[in-house]
Specification:
The complex is a heterotrimer.
Chain A: H1 3-7, H2 33-56, H3 66-88, H4 90-96, H5 107-117, H6 122-152, E1 154-155, E2 158-159, H7 163-167, H8 180-196
Antiparallel strand pairs in A: 1-2
Helix pairs in contact in A: 2-3, 2-4, 2-5, 2-6, 3-4, 3-5, 5-6, 6-8
Chain B: H1 4-14, H2 17-21, H3 25-30, H4 35-64, H5 85-107, H6 109-115, H7 119-122, H8 126-138, H9 143-171, H10 183-198
Chain C: H1 6-50, H2 61-68, E1 69-75, E2 80-84, H3 100-108, E3 115-122, E4 128-137, E5 142-149, E6 156-163, H4 177-181, E7 199-201, E8 215-217, H5 223-238, H6 241-247
Parallel strand pairs in C: 7-8
Antiparallel strand pairs in C: 1-2, 1-3, 3-4, 4-5, 5-6
Helix pairs in contact in C: 1-2
Classes of the chains: A mainly alpha, B mainly alpha, C alpha+beta.
Chain lengths: ~200, ~200, ~250
């Protein structure tokens, strides 16, 4: 098995910065690290397991209703994840609010089901799903890292920027806590990534 | 309770689906290369929102919510089916989109040619499901409120994508740094537009 | 086998829906009590925090709450409708389970059939603090909280606020202890006995001509949320004036 093929989503084939999939639901949860990490785990789990299930039953699915079958399975998994978070990670589930539900329409998941799981064996599908979910999550975590550090001076709710800085006039950048900065950070990430990987650059 | 106008204005400007919540970003980024197609998709999203949100409102309030079944019989009052809301919403959205596609195809081929291609895309557009979820969270008192909210969010989405497509048509002629071309500058533009829309929150 | 025949499609979707329904219901039944416990514990924690019992550990919340709190329901005239002691009258309707936002809505709509909860928390010196829930709306969504009033019916001894979706770092600051602690020692009535509650002053209380007993600093960058808090405290506590006059 070619491991490198599955590492693509982490860099050259990243869902957010290259494939433009699944930007929708999760950017609003990147103001802090904690919800971003949980969101990353939730998406990875849902993506991996739904890929596995669809791949297991791929030969039985009637072609005409395959989108609905996929939606039903993804939706059920998301409901289970949502209920689980509400029961065991109440604080975090409050922060994520409706965005857990929006994992259903996260295009990465549907995209991978269509493009990979329907045509491949269960184990590769599982790995593909996990890799894509994680590749997606890593962008969330990077964005959340900068937003929390610069916006609130904390990481994982621990104070990182020492209090003495504030005495000398350092101020948290309130702009970073606003959702729009997430987009600008991703823009800058794309800039850096495409400066290194020049074949990804778009022709005008 | 907040007035209908307030809901309407808020859902277009201060709580714009794209700029405040990033909902529907995938199709927003993918289908905004020119104003005409952007407008088509915007109208389609608006249309589907206006149909699905009130339907989901009725389903949630009369079937799923804790104590919602009391209108059938008092004994059913303590049943809470709200954990099913996600799956029901998505099913409703998928079937309504399918239905709309069939109706439009049957009765207006002109409309089908301009809207039809976007309809299948819309079933998995986060803005549509997001609209229903926000509707549930906001607890509107009547179905009328939810309708106004749906219309407002739809128009807000339309406004955002058309404005963005117009800007993108212009940036094509500007000297963007190579690595930023296309997607990179699109993200940054959206970020700046979102910042501008933030000013509306002072209203 | 023809997977595209109508019969097969129909059968397939039926079986799928059945399996999904069973699995989801099982999860839901299993997890619902845990979810309910979470929200209950949070509510108890907030009530106790408002009454100045701070930093109680998660495991201790229920115990402490049951030991210290009496739940009272009052009607629109300020008369007590029911009193709930723990392990005493378990069948009573509990103030704890009232939907506060709905009752307030009734009152603001001009109806008179509303009932309101009061949480009477015993202080270490055996005096009683009345914790009153408040609910309103901020910039993006609902905001709510608990305000503790001393037995003189006038002094605010503590408060706690929470929100669904205010902007973190701006309006979201209302849920911090720093913000809530500003309310300690504020008064509801002025020297003439008129109801004025607490104003949130933009630009800081020190630079204004508002009596520091009736004002706190507004949140910078959170104007709408600050206005929401001010209105919520003013409107909700106003409904308790008959009770304060009757009882305290």
């Amino acid at each position: 098995m070619n491991i490198r093929k599955y590492l693509g989503p982490l860099n050259k084939n990243n869902p957010i910065t290259v494939q433009v999939l699944g930007v929708c639901s999760a950017l609003a949860v990147t103001a802090q690290m904690k919800p971003a990490v949980v969101m990353c785990l939730a998406v990875t789990v849902v993506c991996g397991i739904s890929n596995l299930i669809i791949s297991l039953i791929r030969k039985t699915i009637p072609n005409r209703i395959r989108i609905i079958v996929q939606l039903v399975i993804v939706a059920s998994l998301v409901i289970i994840v949502d209920q689980f978070l509400q029961a065991y990670f109440y604080e975090i589930s409050k922060m994520l609010s409706v965005f857990v539900g929006l994992i259903i329409t996260n295009c990465i998941i549907m995209g991978r089901l269509e493009a990979f799981a329907l045509a491949n064996k269960p184990v590769p599908s599982l790995i593909d799903g996990l890799a894509n979910g994680f590749g997606y999550g890593i962008v969330l975590i990077i964005v959340a890292f900068f937003r929390e550090l610069l916006g609130s001076g904390t990481l994982w709710n621990y104070q990182i920027i020492p209090a003495s800085f504030y005495e000398y006039g350092y101020l948290n950048n309130g702009l970073m806590t606003l959702p729009s900065m997430a987009l600008i950070i991703i823009g800058i990430m794309i800039w850096i990534q495409r400066t290194k990987e020049s074949e990804l650059q778009e022709k005008q | 309770m907040e007035s209908l106008t307030e809901i309407f204005v808020r859902s277009i400007f201060t709580e714009n689906m794209i700029f405040a919540y990033f909902l529907g970003m995938c199709s927003y980024l993918a289908v905004s290369k020119n104003v005409k197609t952007a407008f088509g998709l915007g109208i389609a999203v608006c249309f589907v929102l206006v149909v699905t949100i009130p339907v989901n409102y009725l389903i949630y309030n009369f079937l799923l919510k804790a104590g919602a079944l009391t209108w059938i019989s008092a004994q059913l009052g303590n049943i809470n089916l709200s954990f099913l809301s996600l799956i029901i919403y998505i099913a409703v959205i998928a079937s309504i989109v399918q239905l709309l596609e069939m109706i439009i195809e049957r009765y207006s081929s002109a409309l089908y040619n301009s809207l039809g291609i976007f309809l299948p895309l819309i079933a998995v557009n986060c803005a549509i499901l997001g609209g229903s979820l926000f509707m549930q969270e906001r607890n509107f008192p009547t179905v009328g409120h939810s309708l106004v909210y749906a219309l407002g969010s739809g128009i807000g989405w339309l406004l955002a994508i058309v404005a963005f497509a117009a800007i993108r048509e212009k940036t094509r002629y500007s000297k963007t740094p190579k690595p930023l071309r296309g997607l990179g500058i699109a993200y940054i533009t959206t970020g700046l537009m979102a910042l501008a829309f933030l000013a509306f929150s002072g209203i | 086998m023809n997977t595209d025949s109508n019969k097969y499609v129909f059968l397939y979707i039926t079986i799928l829906v059945l399996i999904v329904a069973v699995v989801l219901s099982l999860f839901s039944i299993k997890l619902q009590p845990l979810q309910k416990a979470n929200t209950d514990i949070e509510k108890m924690y907030q009530i106790l925090t408002a009454a100045n019992y701070k930093n109680i550990s998660k495991e201790n919340v229920i115990n402490q709450y049951e030991k210290l709190t009496t739940e009272i329901i009052i009607n629109n005239d300020g008369n007590v409708v029911s009193v709930y002691y723990f392990k005493n009258n378990a069948d009573e309707v509990r103030a704890f389970n009232l939907s506060v936002a709905e009752e307030y809505q009734k009152a603001f709509d001009g109806k008179t059939d509303y009932i309101l909860p009061v949480f009477a928390v015993k202080n270490p010196d055996n005096s009683i603090t009345n914790v009153i829930p408040v609910a309103g709306k901020g910039l993006w969504g609902p905001i709510w909280g608990y305000v503790a009033i001393a037995s003189d019916g006038n002094t605010i001894t503590g408060a706690i606020f929470d929100h669904k979706s205010e902007t973190p770092g701006l309006g979201g600051e209302i849920s911090t202890e720093k913000f809530a602690s500003m309310f300690e020692g504020k008064m509801l009535f002025n020297n003439k006995g008129e109801y004025v509650a607490v104003k949130l002053v933009k630009g800081g209380i020190l630079n204004s001509n508002i009596d520091p007993k009736h004002g706190v600093d507004a949140i910078s960058g959170g104007t709408i949320t600050s206005q929401g808090i001010e209105k919520m405290i003013h409107d909700c506590l106003k409904l308790y004036i008959p009770y304060i006059n009757n009882k305290l």
